[in-house]
Design a protein that fits this description.
This protein is α+β, with helices and mostly antiparallel strands and 370 residues long. Helices cover 29% and strands 16% of the residues. The protein has 11 helices and 14 strands. A hairpin with a 7-residue loop joins β4 and β5. α2 crosses α4. The longest helix has 19 residues, at 79-97. The protein is globular and about 50 Å long.
Length: 370
């Protein structure tokens, strides 16, 4: 469970409670070149089978060096986005070259390290976060067990922690990068406050699988961001328990920033509540895009109830991870075009001051056996 949030005032259906930028986020392998790696907007050439957005998608430019990211024109022209990607690009490219398990392919620069390739091949069958996932449309092919998104997300998270430890603090994003209104930006310190202890929260098989993956990252990670194996394993466990799948509907209405509340209003609406409890069960929640405006949120179905929802990426939003779970949630999550996770009061709900706020970690409408 999370720390918990309680409402500091009465809240109406559709009202924005929290808008949070990702501490780290990565597209899934199948969407590396059909969604922007920074804001997750869909590319214009994604095709009808892909996630839908307003205007039929945006122009995407792939990174020819790492082949692990594509960017929309707005993000590609942002020195803040491209500067950060330049620091991560080499390591991301190394992971993609190893994706085939033979130490070749991926992107320019070729080659690979046989030892890492052997580790990655062994990892494919066991990496817990790479299993065929929630949010996949009914009847769709399962996500390959060689899915690299969990590894790439852990790599990006390690880079964030390393940036925070530099003598000179990392520059903040430029004004307007996250769209209109203020946004909660979590720090590397907030990561350490999340639940997740490898010894307590992973069984033996998961512990061994994560240790293998962390061994791969320790080799490919750039020297300036390299960390101890124990640190990688701790962060991987926190991702295992707290990460969100970023989901969008197939063939439905598009995402949109819409009318966003300011940080003063949103943060005034919640107050921390409850004690942290470490749970062994995986706590993956899914942020469904396509409900960016208050009006859309008020008319949308509860989290994950939209048919054919599709997970296009994974992200860590520490503040959002603090919500506790309920099978009858009063908060639903959406994902806007600025790359932020938005928590709003669920349709048909009214929250009174002092009430605890809940999201659903799983699809409340799914059959019990699932």
């Amino acid at each position: 469970m999370g720390d918990g949030f309680a409402s500091a005032r009465d809240l109406e259906a559709g009202e924005l409670v929290l808008r949070c930028a990702p501490l780290a986020a990565a597209p899934k392998d199948a969407y590396l070149h059909s969604v922007c790696a920074a804001c997750f907007r869909r590319g214009a050439s994604s095709g009808d089978a892909g996630p839908s957005t307003v205007g039929g998608g945006v122009s995407l430019t792939p990174c020819g060096r790492c082949c692990a990211a594509s960017f929309c024109s707005a993000c590609a022209s942002s020195a803040w986005v491209t500067g950060r990607h330049a620091e991560e690009c080499g390591a991301l490219g190394e992971l993609m070259r190893l994706r085939g398990g033979d130490g070749s392919g991926g992107g320019p620069g070729g080659g690979g390290r046989a030892g890492i390739s052997r580790e990655l091949r062994a990892l494919r069958a066991e990496w817990p976060a790479a299993a065929s996932g929630s949010g996949a449309p009914a009847g769709a092919a399962p996500v390959p067990v060689a899915e690299t998104a969990p590894l790439r997300l852990l790599l990006l998270l390690a880079c964030e922690v390393a940036r925070a430890r530099r003598p000179q603090p990392a520059p903040p994003p430029p004004d307007g990068h996250y769209g209109e209104g203020d946004v909660v930006r979590d720090s590397a310190g907030d990561l350490e406050e999340l639940v997740g202890d490898p010894e307590d929260d992973l069984d033996d098989a998961a512990y061994a699988a994560y240790a293998e993956g962390c061994g791969v990252l320790k080799v490919v990670q750039p020297a300036w961001a390299r960390a101890a194996a124990a640190s990688y394993l701790r962060w991987a466990t926190k991702l295992h328990l707290n990460a969100h799948d970023v989901c969008v509907p197939r063939g439905g209405s598009g995402t949109g920033t819409g009318t966003q509340g300011g940080r003063d209003d949103a943060t005034a609406a919640v107050a921390g509540a409850g004690a942290r409890a470490s749970g062994g069960a995986k706590r993956r929640r899914e942020a469904r895009a396509g409900t960016g405006t208050a009006g859309a949120a008020a008319s949308a179905s509860p989290l994950l109830s939209v048919p054919h929802a599709c997970a296009v990426g994974e992200g860590l939003f520490p503040s959002v991870a603090r919500f506790n779970h309920s099978c009858a949630p009063n908060i639903v999550l959406s994902y806007d075009e600025a790359g932020c996770c938005c928590a709003r009061v669920a349709p048909g709900m009214r929250v009174s001051a002092g009430d605890q706020l809940f999201t659903a970690y799983v699809n409340p409408g799914a059959p019990r056996e699932r």
